[in-house]
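Q: Structure tokens for this one, please.
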Amino acid sequence: MMFRVLCLSAAALMVGVFAVAEEAKKAPELKCVVAGTPAKADKTADYKGGKVNFCCDDCKAKFTADPKKYAVAANSQLVQTGQVVQEKCPLSGGPLKADKTVEVGGVKVTFCCENCQGKVAAEKDLAKQKEMVFSDAAFEKAAFKAVKK
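A: Here is the predicted structure, written as tokens:
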């Protein structure tokens, strides 16, 4: 009986470890908002109520000197990391419909209607898609709000 309990416990533990490992695989790697290379957790700057990550101090300095130049990448990273939440459609500013989504660069973006969803989905250039939904104007329309932690 004790052997069965130990075996079941070991099996449950293995399933849990496997699930965590699978989830870690799904988590997208953060990219520096300036260079596009892997970002480091200790290289950050405050931005729109959150923090953006960089690969080095030089990129952090470039961003700090001209954040508007890197706004699309920085806004995208804030959404990707869950530091902000979307409240409205980034194209129209209309109320969101949960079933109207498009994944843009690994980030789920929600829209108000099939028309807005379709415009972004039809764009095959990822840079243009990101501009459509993460530019400062779109970010403002979408009413992204910082998540309090």
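A few notes: The two ends are 46 Å apart (CA to CA). Confidence is low (pLDDT under 50) at residues 5-27.
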